[in-house]
Amino acid sequence: MEMGCSHLFILYCIGLLVPMLVPIFFTNPVLFLFLCSILGSFILLWIFFFIDEKTLIEFDHFQFIILKKSRGIKYSLQSGSIGNIIGVFMEKKQSKYDVVIRTTSGTHTIGELFIAEECAWLTQEIQDWLYPR
Q1: What three-state secondary structure class fits 122?
Q2: Torsion sign, CA atoms 22, 23, 29, 34
Q3: 96 vs 78: CA distance, rounded Å
Q4: How many angstroms separate the Cα of 111 from the Cα of each of 7, 11, 14, 107?
Q5: Residue 81 in contact with residue 62, Cβ under 8 Å?
Q6: pLDDT, tens digit, for every residue of 81-99?
Q7: Three-state SS for 52?
Q8: What is the Cα–Cα distance from 108 to 98, expressed in whole angstroms?
Q9: Helix %, strand %, coil % for the chain, to 5?
Q10: Are 109 and 96 a contacting pair, CB within 8 Å?
C-alpha cells in the first residue's frame, strides 16, 4: 500500500499530539483517557474509510468521470465531456507518473501515481478507446 500525502500528514499530526498528551496523564488521568479515546476513534475512522481508497475513471459516449471509491462509497472528483478532450498524456511527478486528460476546459489528472509501464499502458488504453482505429 502506498501512502499519499494526506495519510502522511495525519500520521505526522498524531506524532505531534501524542507527546502533548503525556503531561496531561500526570495532571489529570481522566482527561488523558478521554483524549486518547477520541484520538483512537479518529485513527480507527481513518483506517476504516481511507486505507482502502481507490481511484476510478469511467467513460461513456458523452462524458468521463474521475471518482474516488472508499468502502463502497463513490464520490466524483472531476468530470468532463468526451468531445472536449484534446489528448491523454503521461506526466512525470518525481519518480512516478500520472495520467493527464487535457480538455478545452482544463486539465484533469487521475491522481494515482504509477510506474512508467503502468502509466503508459493506461494512457494507451484510454487513447485506444477514445480514438478507435
Answers
A1: helix
A2: negative
A3: 21
A4: 14, 21, 25, 12
A5: yes
A6: 999 999 999 999 888 999 9
A7: coil
A8: 10
A9: 45, 35, 20
A10: no
pTM strictly above 0.70:
no
> What pLDDT, in 10s, does the model give residues 12-31?
777 777 777 777 777 888 88
b/e code 1-23 from CB counts within 10 Å (16+ = b): eeeeeeeeeeeeeeeeeeeeeee
* Confidence tier at 6 by pLDDT (50, 70, 90): low
Q: Apex CA 69: angle with CA 48 and CA 104, to 5°?
A: 145
C-alpha 108: how far from its chain's center? Answer: 14
Mean pLDDT of the chain: 82
Which residue's C-alpha cell is 480514438?
131
Distance (Å, whole) CA 23 – CA 81? 56
Which residues lie closer than 8 Å to 80 by C-beta, 6 or more apart? 63, 64, 101, 103, 105, 106, 108
